[in-house]
Amino acid sequence: MPPPAAEPSPLIAALDLGSNSFHMVLARISNGEMRILERLGEKVQLAAGIDENRMLDDAAMQRGLDCLRRFAQLVNHLPQGSVRVVGTNALREARNRALFLRQAETIINHQVEVISGREEARLIYLGVSHTFPTAPGKRLVIDIGGGSTEFIIGEGFDSLLRESLQMGCVSFTQRFFRDGKITAARYAQAYTAARLELMSIEHGLRRLGWQDTVGASGTIRAIGLAIKGAGLSNGQVTSEGLGWLKRKLFKLGDVDRIDMDGIKPDRRSIFPAGLAILEAAFDALELSTMAHSEGALREGVLYDLIGRHHQEDIRSRTLSFLMERYHVDNEQAARVESKALEALDQVSADWGLLDDWHRELLSWAARVHEVGLDIAHYHYHKHGAYLIEHSDLPGFSRQDQQMLALLVRGHRRNIPRQKFEELSEDGVKLTRLCVLLRFAILFHHIRGPQQAPAFTLKADDNSLDVAFPSGWLENNPLTQADFALEAEWLKRIDFTLTVR
C-alpha cells in the first residue's frame, strides 16, 4: 500500500519565479491562521534573456539558478507538499525551459510548476482577496508582471473571469526602451501596443462589470508611490497622476535620470514600459483610481496550498466541472477509479509508485478518461487528451495537464511510448500508471454494477501477471478476448501482460 499522506508541515513556503523577479514567502500555520515569517525577492529578469527564437540564454538561467541557491537554504529541508514553486510567463515562453527546471528542482529539492496565464490570474486573485479588505460587489484586479499582465474580475474569494495578456514591463522594455531612452514616440508605441492587446478582452470585462479596482504588482506599487510623492494622491494610482508621471518621464528622457519616491534603482529601467501598460489599461477600461494590494501571486499560492492541506483542493472541483461539461458517465468513472487504485495498491511497491502524485494522477485520469466521447466516439481518447491539455483547468500546472492528457491519450489502443519518455524524466513510471488505467478500464468494459471477481496482480520491471479465480475467464469470454488483445497492444512497448 502507498504510505498515507504526511501531516501538513507547520511551515509552508511559496516561490514565484516571475519574468522580472523571483520571490519567496515562508509562513507558519498555527490554529488555522497563517503568519508570514520571511519574504525574499530578487530581480532576475528572465524575460530579458529570451531571444527571438524563444530560447532562454545562459546568463539569464545563471541569474535564476544563483537566486534559487540563496532561497534554497530556507526551503530545501521542508517536506514535500509544504512548498509550491510556480513559474510564470518567461518559463511558459522559453522553449528550453526543461533545462532550467531540472537544475532548479535539484537546487531547491521541490518540483517547479509552470502555470498557465489563467492559472496565474486565479492565484493572483486568491492572494489579493485574502490580504486586501473585502468590499461589496465585484472587484477588478490587475497585475503587471515582467512578461504578462493579468486581469481578473472576482467576488469574495472566487474569481469569475481570468485573462492573461502577452505584455509585461520587461518584454515591453526590450521592445520599446531597450537603450533606456524615453521619448514621446517610443512611449506612444508601447501604449498603442498595449491598447491593441487589451482590445481582445475589454468587452468581456466591461460586460461583467466591477465596483472597485485593485492593482497587485511591484510596478503598480511603484507608480502609486511616485504619484503620492508628488502630492497627487495618498498612494492610489489616479488618471491625473498617470498623466503627470508620463510628462515627467518625457522631460527626463532617460531611465538613468529617474529619481522619484517609490521607484527603486533596479526598477528604473522597466518603469516607462510599466507606466505605458497601466495607462493603456486605465484608458481602455475607463478607470479613475486604483488601490494597491501587497498580496499577489505568492500569497495566492500559499492560500491555495493551505486549501490542499484541508481537503479543499480546487483541482477536484475543476475535474467535476469538466466531467459535467462533457457529460461523463460518473458511475462508470467511479468504477474505473476504484479498480485502478485497487490495482495500484497491489503493485505500488514493486513498481516504485509510492508518491502521492502517482495516486492523484491515476485517480484523475480514471475520472476523466471518457471526456472525449462528447466530441466523437472515433478516436475519443485523442479528443479527450486534446481537451485536457488545452483547456483552462484551475489548480493544474502545465505539467499536470500534460501528464494527465497523456494518460488519457494512452488509455486505449496504442501507447505513444516516445511521448511518455519525452514528457517525463521518469517516463517508465508514467507508462506503468497508464497500464494500470488500461487494466481498470478493461475490467469494467461491460458497464454496470455487476459483481466483480477478486484478482491478484504481480508486477516485474516490464511485465504484469493477472490472476482471476479459476474458471472465471472461461465463463467471461468477452473479457478474456479483451485481455488477449491488450497483451498484443502492450507488446508494442516491450511489455508483457499475462492473464490467467
Q: What can you tell me about this protein's structure?
A:
- The protein has 500 residues and is of the alpha/beta class.
- The protein contains 20 helices and 14 strands.
- The protein has helices at residues 58-75, 89-93, 97-108, 117-131, 169-176, 184-198, 202-208, 218-229, 239-252, 271-285, 297-309, 314-325, 330-351, 356-368, 380-390, 398-409, 417-423, 427-443, 472-475, 477-491, and strands at 11-17, 21-30, 33-43, 83-87, 112-114, 139-144, 149-155, 158-165, 212-215, 237-238, 289-292, 456-460, 463-467, 496-499.
- The strands form three sheets. A six-stranded mixed beta sheet has the order 8-7-6-9-11-10, sandwiched between helices.
- A hairpin with a 3-residue loop joins strand 1 and strand 2 (21-30).
- Helix 1 (58-75) packs parallel to helix 3 (97-108), helix 4 crosses helix 11 and helix 14 (356-368) packs across helix 18 (427-443).
